[in-house]
Amino acid sequence: MTGREIRMLCRSGTLTKPTPGLSPGFVQSNLVCVPRDLAFDFLLFCRRNSRPCPLLDVTDPGDPVPRIAAADGDVRTDCPRYRVYRYGELIDEPTDLLNWWRDDMVAFLLGCSFTFERALLDAGLPVRHVEEGRNVPMYRTSVPCASAGLFRGPLVVSMRPMTPDQAVQANRICKGFPLAHGAPIHSGDPSALGIADLSRPDFGEAVTIRSGEIPVFWACGVTPQAVAMNARPPILLTHAPGHMLLTDLRDADMRG
User: Fold this and answer.
1) Cα end-to-end span (Å), the chain
2) Would you say 244 and 30 are in contact if contact means Cβ atoms under 8 Å apart?
3) Which domain holds residue 120?
4) If the chain, 256 residues long, is cut into consecutive pieces of 10 residues, what is the mean pLDDT of each piece?
5) What CATH number should be reported for the domain holding residue 213?
6) Which one of 1, 19, 38, 220 is least enclosed by Cβ atoms within 10 Å?
7) Do 178 and 249 fall into the same domain?
8) pLDDT of 60
């Protein structure tokens, strides 16, 4: 299906599951919505932290339509599931944002690692969470993001297990997708990122790491949610981890 067809399924309430592997070739995006008075600070946060927050589109205040990424889209209804944070606390996980949207909200669409997974699969590289039908595992790290105004907090990473040789190939492929987090930021020992237990991700689901494989970590677009928990803005609306907004952009548009 196309990105638009997936959006329509979400809008009707038919699709509420995570989106890894859906609509191959169409770009998936993270979503962050903030009040207008915080929008410049968040824009600056994205510019200073472009690996976890590669910017694809920004809406006008109060306008739910991402006109560059999906001209007939609606950020309030077109993700399978959302999260609502108030002063850093997760208070709701609705299937739409219609009861939470305000006339001053500005929506940011950020690149997603699901975009480069088709290129990994085409190269014969494993994408374990797709193989196992799970949501990608994501972890808070001890690595701080560059702060901007209210927004400050830890980097979040996604993880895909591979052999060392496969990790080298993945690095070469993902360098070509700078708007989808780019190359991995670390391979091997998770403690170097402050991750204590790979079997207990902070977001998503754990996957199998086979003999001879190492964990490979990418900067992740769930970072703003960890930042929200730390910075405690009055309100922040996001996609639920792994439940992305499908756009009309194509994977080829993300290549550097």
Assistant:
1) 25
2) yes
3) 114-219
4) 97 95 92 97 97 97 97 98 97 98 98 91 96 95 97 97 98 95 97 98 97 98 94 95 95 76
5) 3.30.2040.10
6) 1
7) no
8) 97
- Report the C-alpha gap between 112 and 254 in whole angstroms: 10
Distance CA 208, CA 230 (A): 30
Q: How many domains does the chain have?
A: 2
Residue 225 belongs to some domain of the structure: no
pTM: 0.93
Domain contains 245: yes
Q: Structure tokens of 124?
A: 């014969």
132 and 144 both lie in a single domain: yes
| Alpha carbon distance 25, 164 (integer Å) | 27
Same domain, 101 and 63: yes
Q: How far apart are CA 196 and CA 102, in angstroms?
A: 39
Q: Where are the beta strands (DSSP E) in the chain?
A: 26-35, 55-58, 82-86, 89-92, 105-111, 138-144, 154-162, 186-187, 214-219, 236-239, 245-250
3-class DSSP state of 112: coil
Of 195, 191, 240, 187, nearest in space to 215 by CA:
187
- Find tokens 């196309």 and name the residue: 2
Q: What is the pLDDT of residue 255?
A: 74
> Which residue is listed with tokens 């609502």?
84
For position 254, what pLDDT does the model report? 77
Q: What is the pLDDT of residue 114?
A: 87
Cα separation, 154 vs 204, in Å, equals 17
**Do 246 and 151 fall within a single domain?**
no
DSSP code for 142: E
* CATH code for the domain of 101: 3.40.1640.10
The residues with which 32 forms a beta bridge, in sequence order, are 108, 238
Give SS3 for 162. Answer: strand
Reduce the DSSP state of residue 161 to 3 states and report it.
strand
